[in-house]
Design brief:
It is built from 8 helices and 11 strands. The protein is α/β, with parallel strands linked by helices and about 350 residues long. It has 3 domains: about 140 residues, no CATH class; about 55 residues, no CATH class; about 80 residues, no CATH class. The strands form 3 sheets. It has a 4-stranded parallel beta sheet. The chain has a 4-stranded antiparallel beta sheet with strand order 9-8-10-11, sandwiched between helices. The longest helix is centred in the C-terminal third of the chain and has 41 residues.
């Protein structure tokens, strides 16, 4: 069994995978909220994946770390990926990668800004994901102005990040993403956009860029360079987001609870997400004791509650997507017939 320890409200990262693309994984994956981690003490074998570490308070990290060490000493056949305390989080990881020469850009806490900070910079929260494009700040005066509004931003652990990307010769920025799952790795995407902050370029990629994406996913070309970075971060489950600047990898972050597939499938999809689901699933099933059925009534009860909420949420989400994509499809057919 695989026990996926996450924040109770962030199990959606595996929702599309478990509910639609690889429903067979439901037989040996269990969601375990961090606040119910104690139930793992009764499990003799399996794999525990610690995720969402950036969303935990210091007290929660300490409690999970104590639990992890106890399981390590008392349950030798219960393998663990990541460690609540030892896995390096965003801020310290970026500081480390700048210090060792991997990255050319640095990151700072707002209260400890040096004189030699390199502009432009942007603000982001170390905790959680960023969905809205941060504002690039080209000078100290604009940074100070932005910091004066920091109290209104609801950041947990704010960071000032030096801008570390650069467009490729075709004028577009790139964001690469690669997963590590235990001893396995696979490339998930190479997105290209004229905008520097890339979440999902949608239909904005050219034919050449789509071919580049397909080759990246097929060849996993940076696996050898990324493996030591995962090791430095002491992260054995997660997704590394990065770019290439002047031929060198520049790391943005390693997310320990990344979304595997954003959307449920519809009859009007123009792309096939199944290969990405299969790559993730194939890596999961190779984890130690992944196919062992051992769980516990408490873990199963909570897991089914979480999965039920996700099923209802994604059923509604799928209906909305189907209507929206269907409308676009039939509108396009109608226009094409005129």
């Amino acid at each position: 069994m695989i026990f996926y320890v996450c924040h109770r409200s962030h199990a959606n990262t595996l929702a599309s995978l478990l509910l639609y693309f690889r429903a067979d994984l439901q037989d040996f994956v269990r969601f375990v909220p961090h606040d119910e981690g104690r139930h793992l003490l009764g499990i003799p074998k399996g794999t525990v994946i610690w995720t969402d570490l950036d969303r935990l308070s210091e007290a929660e990290i300490e409690a999970s770390a104590i639990l992890s060490e106890r399981m390590k000493s008392q349950q030798p056949d219960l393998f663990q990926l990541n460690h609540p305390r030892q896995s390096v989080q965003r801020f310290e990881l970026l500081r480390m990668l700048f210090s060792d020469g991997t990255n050319d850009f640095n990151v700072y806490r707002p209260e400890l800004l040096p004189e030699g900070i390199r502009f432009p910079v942007f603000l982001r929260d170390e905790a959680g994901a960023t969905y809205k494009t941060p504002r690039l700040l080209p000078s100290r005066a604009e940074l100070d102005q932005e910091l004066s509004n920091l109290g209104k931003m609801n950041f947990v652990r704010p960071m000032v990040v030096e801008f570390g990307s650069k467009p490729a010769p075709d004028g577009s920025y790139r964001k690469y993403a690669s997963y590590r799952i235990g001893a396995r790795s696979y490339s998930q995407h190479c997105f290209a956009s004229e905008e520097w902050f890339i979440k999902d370029p949608g239909k904005g990629m050219s034919g050449q860029q789509l071919a580049e994406h397909a080759a990246y996913v097929r060849d996993n070309p940076h696996a050898g360079e990324l493996s030591p970075i995962f090791e430095k971060a002491r992260i054995s489950y997660g997704r590394i987001d990065y770019t290439i600047v002047d031929g060198r990898i520049q790391v943005f972050e390693i997310n320990t609870n990344p979304t595997v597939l954003n959307y449920p499938p519809t009859p009007f999809d123009t792309y096939d997400s199944q290969p990405y689901a299969d790559m993730h699933a194939e890596a999961l099933v190779l984890l130690p004791y992944a196919n062992d059925p051992t769980s516990s009534p408490d873990i199963d009860k909570t897991h089914l509650q979480i999965l039920g909420r996700l099923r209802n949420k994604y059923r509604r989400k799928r209906v909305k997507l189907t209507v929206r994509k269907g409308f676009r499809y039939f509108w396009g057919v109608t226009l094409g017939a005129k």
